[in-house]
Structure to design on (453 residues):
């Protein structure tokens, strides 16, 4: 009788895969054009249930890489495989100053194609998790920087994306909210969400599955 | 809540903007219309005093609508693009943004036309009202195109002012022969005719409708193109 072979743990599905991504910018006036090679073949992957960090010095191209993944910027070369259902929390909150927190939730719920019940449930949960329910009827222009950042993050999470892209998401958070942010990220990672966190300095390496450093336009595991 | 309603609400919550939308056309028509005829003669144009008054309403509505159209598109471009990428789609967001901005055109044109009626007797008031509205809609479209392509407030507002000045000084009444690139040529022809007590034939209205439709189509395309996904 053939001995039973212990089954291997199920392979995690790769949710985000970048291969050889290149991006250059042309700077300066036409008679003195210079080419700035920001990404020179960046590759990385994030599997379901992973919380992956991306670090790098100022100007190393982390935000450019993020914007390429999201679709805000076109890449010059390379491939990007990503799911359609992704959440994006930009470094600078991209919000409408004259609209309220509630109106933001409604606009994004419509964009994510959430039905009314699911949208209301997700909104209530996020308002509680990030402790800003009392600001629901406030306009963005009347919110503090930290509360704007909470809304910025909440909008990225509203539809429980398969892939969550966070570009320095905790800038402006107080200590308590900072800790709560990491707890939220960990809870979602455990539920199978793939998360890529970008920062110029990651102090919480023990929370991360893997850390890439973007240096000279390439990603290296550190 | 539709996107268009939300974007329109965004504009209504800026009281200073609304005040400017009303004040600029009213002040321009009331104060400067008298000088325009002299100015036109100096440039080799043939603008009569009555036509100058009516044309000033169109220009005033155009200037404020174009400037605010630019700021609407430029100041919200980051959030609009985020919403488009989130699933709303660049074309649908563009439709909502342009539709909401048309409210600016209606208010600016209404203020300009009201000031005109108070200042002078217009033989064909409905013709004048439609032409002033066309001025404002064309310039909202100009502002949205520039706001889609240029993010910087300084450079963008200078671009709007440049288009406006080029248009005004090469348009009907001011130049001996209107330049073909004058974007407001058609509404200006109809407005001048209304100021001189003449109606405009149906053919002129068809041409005006074509120019307005083209301006809106270009603004929609520019906004949607710049907000598209590059993935």
């Amino acid at each position: 009788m053939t001995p039973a072979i212990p089954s291997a743990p199920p392979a995690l599905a790769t949710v985000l895969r970048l291969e050889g991504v290149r991006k250059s910018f042309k700077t300066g006036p036409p008679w003195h054009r210079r080419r700035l090679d920001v990404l020179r073949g960046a590759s990385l992957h994030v599997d379901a249930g992973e919380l992956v960090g991306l670090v790098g010095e100022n100007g190393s191209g982390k935000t450019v890489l993020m914007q390429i993944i999201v679709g805000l910027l076109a890449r010059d070369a390379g491939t990007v495989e990503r799911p359609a259902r992704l959440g994006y929390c930009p470094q600078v909150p991209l919000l409408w100053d004259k609209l309220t927190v509630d109106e933001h939730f409604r606009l994004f719920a419509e964009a994510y194609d959430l039905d009314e019940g699911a949208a209301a449930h997700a909104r209530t949960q996020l308002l509680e998790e990030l402790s800003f329910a009392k600001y629901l009827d406030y306009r963005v222009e009347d919110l503090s920087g930290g509360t704007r950042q909470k809304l910025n993050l909440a909008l990225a999470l509203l539809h429980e994306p398969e892939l969550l892209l966070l570009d320095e998401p905790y800038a402006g958070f107080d200590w308590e909210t900072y800790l709560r942010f990491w707890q939220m990220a960990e809870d979602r990672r455990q539920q199978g969400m793939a998360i890529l966190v970008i920062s110029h300095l990651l102090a919480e390496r023990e929370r991360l599955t893997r850390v890439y450093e973007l240096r000279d336009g390439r990603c290296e595991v550190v | 809540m539709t996107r268009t309603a939300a974007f329109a609400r965004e504009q209504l919550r800026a009281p200073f903007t609304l005040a400017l939308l009303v004040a600029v056309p009213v002040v321009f028509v009331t104060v400067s219309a008298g000088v325009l005829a002299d100015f036109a003669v100096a440039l080799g144009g043939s603008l009569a005093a009555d036509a100058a008054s009516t044309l000033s309403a169109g220009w005033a509505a155009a200037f404020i609508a174009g400037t605010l159209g630019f700021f609407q598109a430029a100041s919200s471009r980051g959030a609009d693009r985020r919403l488009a990428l989130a699933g709303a789609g660049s074309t649908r967001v563009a439709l909502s943004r342009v539709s909401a901005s048309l409210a600016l055109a209606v208010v600016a044109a209404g203020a300009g036309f009201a000031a005109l009626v108070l200042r002078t007797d217009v033989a064909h008031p409905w013709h004048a009202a439609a032409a002033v509205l066309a001025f404002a809609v064309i310039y909202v479209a100009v502002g949205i195109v520039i706001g889609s392509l240029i993010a910087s407030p300084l450079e963008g507002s200078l671009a709007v002012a440049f288009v406006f000045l080029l248009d005004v000084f090469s348009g009907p009444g001011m130049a001996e022969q209107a330049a073909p690139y004058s974007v407001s040529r058609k509404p200006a022809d109809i407005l001048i005719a209304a100021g001189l007590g003449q109606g405009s034939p149906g053919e002129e209205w068809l041409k005006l409708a074509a120019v307005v439709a083209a301006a809106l189509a270009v603004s929609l395309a520019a906004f949607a193109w710049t907000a598209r996904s590059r993935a």
Remarks:
- Chain B has one domain: 3-226.
- Residues 90-119 of chain B form the longest helix (30 residues).
- Chain B touches chain A through 21 residues (CB under 8 Å).
- Residues 84 and 90 of chain B are 5 Å apart (CA to CA).
